[in-house]
Amino acid sequence: MASSSGNSSGSTQIQNSGSEGELQTVIDQRKRKRMQSNRESARRSRMRKQKHLDDLMAQVNHLRKENSQIFTTMNMTTEQFLRVDAENSVLRAQVMELSHRLDSLNEILDYMNTPSNITGVYENGLTGNTDNFLMTPWNLMCVNQIQQPIMASADMFQY
Question: For the whole model, what pTM was predicted?
């Protein structure tokens, strides 16, 4: 029995070593497949990362260009605002000056149109009382104004 059991264990070892060789070959094939699959997966991952990086760089360049355009537009708008603001300041000063002139002219007209001033001119100047007329030279202006209207030209308002 010992010999038969020895023979059977010997053949089992031979069968095991044959199946172990095949098993080792299967394991090596699976290992190689897994390694190849991992390499492909890593390559795809690197490609995705590179594409993502390229997309981000393109977006950075686009945003920089857009930022530059916005900055240029902002500078042009600021310059235009400053020009318009300066022009408005000049126009406001002109309006104030013209308003003062108009007020002065209206005061002169009110003074000339006051009935007591006109009758005073006629009483003093036109009725023959020349002594009093010469003593008040501002009445001479009223006499001239009665004879001639106030003339204004566009050149008067130029700066």
Answer: 0.45
